[in-house]
Amino acid sequence: MQMVRTCWIILLICCPLAFAIPAAAVEPLSLTWSTILGGSEADYAHEVQQTSDGGYIVAGYTLSNDGDVGRNHGLEDIWVVKLDGAGKPVWNATLGGSDRDFAYAVQQTSDGGYVVAGSTRSNDGDVGFNHGLEDSWVVKLDGAGRKVWNVTLGGSDYDFAYAVQQTSDGGYVVAGSTRSNDGDIGRNHGGFDSWVVKLDGAGKLVWNTTFGGSKDDYTHPVQQTSDGGYVVAGSTGSDDGDVGPNHSLGRYWILKLDGAGKLVWNTTFGGSRSEAPSAVQQTSDGGFIVAGFTGSNDGDVGFNHGLYDLWVVKLDGAGQKVWNATLGGSDLDGASAVQQTSDGGYVVAGSTRSNDGDVGFNHGLEDSWVVKLDGAGQKVWNVTLGGSKNDEATAVRQTSDGGYIVAGSTGSNDGDVRSNHGSADYYVVKLAGDGSTPVAGHSLPLVLVVAIIVGAVTLVYSRDKKRSQ
Question: pLDDT 10s digit of each residue in the chain, 469 long?
Fold first, then answer.
């Protein structure tokens, strides 16, 4: 009788374990490989893409002239690195002049080469001509990293290119910001304006257009949409001109253009503090996904974990908000990249200084942070990467094997970072596809609960049998 009572107690305790412990997310199976590239100075990667041969192309900028870099034209240079499928360098190319040159975007082109976009203050070396102060700079490379052509775009003030994409007609669309009102620009609304440029396949200017109000307005990402137009994301501090009412320090600003660069619609999202998007993509349902950061806890945001949060907003095809998600902890968190994944969810990359909330663990200072969301914006898993210094993820792409390639920079030489050449290095990480490794908070599988019950009952039965003997 005693054994029966004991078994019932075990059943009452153990059975709810299958249901009471909240389910948590699956995490990536493993860090497949990581590559650290650079020299003795600062090197920052901004974009990565898987290439048609299964390798990867990475672009950013470097101050180094040693180590993996080799040559520097002066101050910062654009630095493009080709990796094989295992993360080993195949070739690298530095591009620039005697002043400061930066790359923020790279894409493989249909001819097997690459297009790179950024900015330059040089007027010599690989650049040749500068309109004044800083120009947008677009460079076409062949498949071996050799320059085919380059073009500088701008006026007498500051002009930047943050994004480039080859378009369906074989040309290119470039997005950035400008403070000029002369040269290639024509019109400026006030302060910095959002600036979109269309080039033909040889880099010749087809059209360009500026959008904004009387204050500073910035553009970061651009993508050609399925209707032949373009979607552009940026931030705005204006409340007039092309923007309309704005009651915050800065807001998400999404613009839909037609194929000739004419404004179709634009919309702003945010709260009473500042927000800025870093990435936008058209989604399979014809809508858009936008990612960046927010400091607000009101308005369109609703909730903030502390200081700045990573903020993801899903829009429909007309620019209306479908849902939004804030993710983070009590410190600084933000997103630099987003991509829809093959399962209809989203992968987001950025950085975090938090070690609580949605983050959970931090290696020290700032970590690279990769988050997987489902199609409704709910967190599936997240992983922090880095060491005891500052680490940041600026780009992420799902790879053909279902894993993820992440690029950014690291100042660490411990933790997940096996070595560091200087103050900051390119940091490229390959993650395996989604797995089911149990983490804290996972529900216990039913088979495990049954095993616990059977084991406990057997133990009690054996004990009572011995006593009866």
Answer: 444 444 444 344 444 443 333 444 444 458 999 999 999 999 999 999 999 999 999 999 999 999 999 899 999 999 999 999 999 999 999 999 999 999 999 999 999 999 999 999 999 999 989 999 999 999 999 999 999 999 999 999 999 999 999 999 999 999 999 999 999 998 999 999 999 999 999 999 999 999 999 999 999 899 999 999 999 999 998 989 999 776 566 799 999 999 999 999 999 999 999 999 999 999 999 999 999 999 999 999 989 999 999 999 999 999 999 999 999 999 999 999 999 999 999 999 999 999 999 998 999 999 999 999 999 999 999 999 999 999 999 999 999 999 999 999 999 999 999 889 999 999 999 999 875 333 333 333 433 334 434 444 444 445 454 444 4
Strand order in the sheet with 346-352: 333-340, 346-352, 367-373, 379-385
d(CA 445, CA 39): 48
